[in-house]
Design goal:
Length: 457
């Protein structure tokens, strides 16, 4: 018993000495950096959760650090400055810097409504604000307190714009006359003077019919399946279509427009990404549209933010927004896949983190019946792709709270659906489906497993 008391006394003394030795700042740093909870262990889990959801406020950094410090010089920059043409020189100096960084402007008044344009929450970036009040407003949204129970964005530095910062930048040390001339030129670039949702005028991209399309900088990221698998596949298929169009003398062939459907498109980021990339990579004689489909587009007011997003990104002519309830409109959607509707052919249908098993089963059955009854008039390929939560292997449990297990795919569920017994009868009919990808990957925010699945018919 005496030995036990001595051990307990030593432990208590060592803990007490530890608190005496640690300064307040070093203790806070240890708690934040390593989630070490100093003190009573009775609430260790609660305190660790609180600490993990309350990261330290990002430091205010100097303009010179943003330009020259290697820690910040190449990081993406989110400008929360108001849309004032006189600020164009400020951002232009950063774009001309040797470090090529993405620069995106979202006026701070629109930050909350355009949060879908922010980077993934694990990507470091820097923000630029006009004053300290805007800094506080931005931090309340981007780095919330524990009570808000929201994973924060990884803001690693804040630059507060002021006259001292501007004067310290040699690239901006120009005369007032020169600045006025550049501001007037920048204002002329703006296509709509009353468009409060556009980028800063100096970054409002304008193009004529002879210029090559270059996508604007962005902080948001498309789904990896869309960017690394689906995009190259679509570029290949549509480029082949351009060769056919060049070799054909019929006006009907040359007027074909290929559609790519995003079912359950949400905010439309994947739609926008595909439209931008296809517009920049495809020959000019290829006509295409990327269609955003979602039942949430119930009214013009609900659709307007998506239209505005596509307009800002200069792909309004290459995109379409449609209100679609898959459960109620399945028949009409499937009917559109097997025919040329007024010069429009659906080349691809894909879904990202949206799963409707009944609809996919009807899709497979519908195309089987068309092939069996010799009424399939399609000669072009059709691609189906999805990126959705999936158990990592057969028989595995789903260990995450979201989504619920009944919304999660079994490991080989899709493969089994598309590899069902082929239709018997016509021996000349083509194969039903060819599986191009069937891979398990992990998301970057929570470590959940997803299936990247692509088939072609």
């Amino acid at each position: 018993m005496n030995v036990k008391r001595v051990v307990m006394w030593c432990a208590a003394s060592r803990l007490s000495l530890g608190f005496t030795w640690l300064t307040s700042s070093s203790a806070n740093w240890l708690q934040t950096k390593y989630s070490i909870v100093l003190g009573s262990t009775s609430h260790i889990h609660h305190e660790r959760k609180s600490l993990s959801s309350m990261p330290p406020a990002p430091p205010v950094i100097a303009w010179s650090d943003l330009v020259n410090n290697p820690i910040y010089a190449s990081l993406p920059l989110l400008s929360l400055l108001p849309e004032i043409a006189s600020l164009c020189d400020t951002l232009a100096s950063l774009r001309n810097n040797i470090h090529r960084r993405p620069i995106v402007s979202i006026p701070i008044a629109q930050l909350r409504s355009r949060s879908f344009e922010l980077p993934p929450r694990d990507v470091d970036f820097v923000i630029l604000v006009q004053n300290d009040a805007d800094r506080v407003t931005a931090m309340e949204f981007l780095v919330p307190t524990a009570k808000q129970q929201q994973k924060p964005w990884s803001v690693v530095g804040v630059v507060v714009l002021n006259e001292h910062n501007l004067e310290c930048d040699n690239e901006l040390a120009t005369t007032r006359t020169a600045k006025k001339q550049r501001n007037e030129a920048a204002l002329e670039i703006t296509t709509s003077a009353d468009d409060s949702s556009s980028l800063l005028p100096c970054y409002k991209q304008t193009q004529d019919s002879t210029s090559a399309f270059v996508p604007l900088d962005r902080l948001w990221q498309p789904d990896p399946m869309v960017s690394s698998i689906l995009l190259p596949l679509l570029v290949d298929k549509l480029t082949q279509a351009s060769y056919i169009n060049n070799d054909s003398n019929t006006s009907s062939t040359k007027s074909i427009c290929y559609e790519i459907w995003d079912v359950g498109s949400g905010a439309g980021r994947d739609v926008c990404f595909l439209a931008e990339q296809l517009k920049s990579q495809l020959p000019s004689n290829v006509k295409f549209r990327v269609v955003a489909m979602d039942q949430r587009y119930r009214s013009p007011q609900a659709e307007q933010p998506i239209h505005d997003f596509f307009e800002r990104r200069n792909v309004s002519l290459e995109t379409v927004v449609r209100k679609v309830d898959v459960d109620k409109e399945a028949d009409s959607l499937l009917h559109s896949l097997d025919q040329n509707n007024n010069g429009t052919i659906v080349l691809c249908m894909y879904a990202v983190r949206y799963w409707n098993k009944a609809f996919v089963e009807r899709l497979i059955q519908s195309m089987k019946e068309s092939s069996k009854n010799a009424v399939d008039t399609r000669v072009e390929p059709f691609i189906f792709a999805t990126s959705h939560f999936c158990k990592p292997h057969a028989g595995a449990n789903w260990l995450f709270d979201h989504p619920k297990p009944h919304h999660v795919l079994e490991r080989h569920e899709l493969r089994n659906m598309f590899q069902a017994a082929p239709v018997s009868g016509n021996s000349k009919q083509r194969d039903e489906w060819k599986i191009l990808r069937d891979d398990i990957v992990t998301d970057t925010d929570h470590g959940r497993t997803l299936l990247q699945f692509v088939v072609e018919r």
